[in-house]
Amino acid sequence: LHQTVPFWFISRPVSVSQSSKRCAVIGGSGFLGRHLVEKLQDRGYSVSVFDIRQSYELPGVTFHQGDLCDEQALLSALKDVSLVFHCASPAPASNDRALFERVNIQGTKTVIEACIQAGVQKLVLTSSASVVFEGTDIKNGREDLPYAKKPIDYYTQTKIQQEKLVLEACDKQKGFLTVAIRPHGIFGPRDPQLVPIMVDAARRGKMKFIIGDGTNLVDFTFVENVVHGHILAAECLRPDSPICGKPYHITNDEPIRFWDFMSEMLVGLGYAAPRFHLPYGLVYSLALLLWLLTWILRPLLSFKPTFTPMRVALAGTHHYYSCERAKQDLGYRPVVSLKEGIARTVQSYPHLRHGA
Ligand SMILES: NC(=O)C1=CN([C@@H]2O[C@H](COP(=O)(O)OP(=O)(O)OC[C@H]3O[C@@H](n4cnc5c(N)ncnc54)[C@H](O)[C@@H]3O)[C@@H](O)[C@H]2O)C=CC1
Ligand SMILES: CC(C)CCC[C@@H](C)[C@H]1CC[C@H]2C3=C(CC[C@]12C)[C@@]1(C)CCC(=O)C[C@@H]1CC3
């Protein structure tokens, strides 16, 4: 694979000292976090996980179970650690405003304070490309797009605050360097949302319809490319590099029609591809109405609609992003193509196949 290496990257010392290879992954029990932990170990890092739950065991990886809002718990996990990846967040589907504010805003402030107190030198945040998305088309969006003034949900609203906090904390004088990775539509083996939600909808006969004309292009990013972007950012983060305090889009660099991606996944798993078109405006209005009804009736019934306004907006608009800045500054190139990523994902879900 041909990679252009940035000039300041070449000046990096060849051997990375042992202490700079001690890292912690906050949210390391999650989908992205676990893939990141596995790759970091492959690359010779000594890895600790900090997470509110422990979802697996891996020889050589130390687990610290705790809430990232608890500074004392974080401090003991960050002892002797020089590099921290923060990829913890409540799931977007929870739509729990208080929880998002507590974990993504207050918790991230606590993470920053704990890192500084523990002498951590680098903090890599997993942000989201959605921080600039307002529910209307984004084509080849670059990092200089303004943050969404009207974010599509509480999750996105708090991801914006979180990213600002981390990037503003970057301080070369104090030797505390930060960077944010903005992935989009992460998919791959063990993903708990995209494929399971899609299959659940298909099993309930709800994936027969294409919202809109079906031509809207979207980024779906294979998890190993997202991991690659995080590790490149960590390894490039030095006081003399241009990446300090900046956000970077990491995508597969292969925008695809939303409904072609869904169809490939569904057909690969043995389900029929969606065929019938429904007008975007109609579906969005119905989703909004249903969402309002479930909100008003929430003391009486707990019903979670499949087609939320957020999902309809994501399914019916263009939202794809340029990763040119990551190519330029990090030497990033996707390491797994979309075709290969889809094939590996489909293979990894035998229990979600039609008839299983
Ligand atoms: N999945 C996607 O398509 C995208 C995800 N992201 C971001 O990537 C990151 C990782 O997402 P996923 O791996 O998909 O989610 P995930 O839900 O699989 O992992 C998140 C992890 O954070 C942990 N966590 C939540 N609250 C915590 C707390 N208070 N203290 C300690 N740990 C806590 C959870 O236990 C979980 O293991 C998140 O920051 C998310 O916002 C960004 C763009 C797209
Ligand atoms: C029911 C169908 C219309 C949709 C099924 C698939 C969706 C569950 C996913 C399609 C795009 C995904 C996506 C995210 C979550 C899962 C989808 C809505 C995110 C919101 C996850 C967190 C982010 O930061 C942005 C993602 C955008 C794409």
In short:
The protein is α/β, with parallel strands linked by helices and 356 residues long. The chain is 38% helix and 16% strand.
SSE order and pairing:
Elements: H1 7-10, E1 22-26, H2 31-42, E2 46-51, E3 62-65, H3 71-77, E4 83-86, H4 97-118, E5 122-126, E6 138-141, H5 154-168, E7 177-183, E8 186-187, H6 194-203, E9 209-211, E10 217-218, E11 221-222, H7 223-236, E12 247-250, E13 256-257, H8 258-268, E14 276-278, H9 280-296, H10 309-316, E15 319-321, H11 324-330, H12 338-347
Parallel strand pairs: 1-2, 1-4, 2-3, 4-5, 5-7, 6-15, 7-12, 8-11, 9-14
Antiparallel strand pairs: 10-13
Residues 27, 29-33, 51-53, 67-69, 87-91, 103, 107, 126, 128, 159, 183-186, 192 line the site of 1,4-dihydronicotinamide adenine dinucleotide.
Protein model, in words:
Helix 2 (31-42) packs across helix 7, helix 3 (71-77) crosses helix 4 and helix 9 (280-296) packs antiparallel against helix 10 (309-316). The chain has a domain at 20-187 and 220-251 and 320-335: Rossmann fold (3-Layer(aba) Sandwich), CATH 3.40.50. With 356 residues, it is of the alpha/beta class. Strands 3-2-1-4-5-7-12 form a seven-stranded parallel sheet, with helices on both faces. The longest helix is centred in the first third of the chain and has 22 residues, at 97-118. It has helices at 7-10, 31-42, 71-77, 97-118, 154-168, 194-203, 223-236, 258-268, 280-296, 309-316, 324-330, 338-347, and strands spanning 22-26, 46-51, 62-65, 83-86, 122-126, 138-141, 177-183, 186-187, 209-211, 217-218, 221-222, 247-250, 256-257, 276-278, 319-321. It has twelve helices and 15 strands. The chain binds 1,4-dihydronicotinamide adenine dinucleotide and ligand LHIR3OJJ. The site of 1,4-dihydronicotinamide adenine dinucleotide has 27 residues, from helix 2 and helix 4. Residues 27, 29-33, 51-53, 67-69, 87-91, 103, 107, 126, 128, 159, 183-186, 192 line the site of 1,4-dihydronicotinamide adenine dinucleotide (NAI).
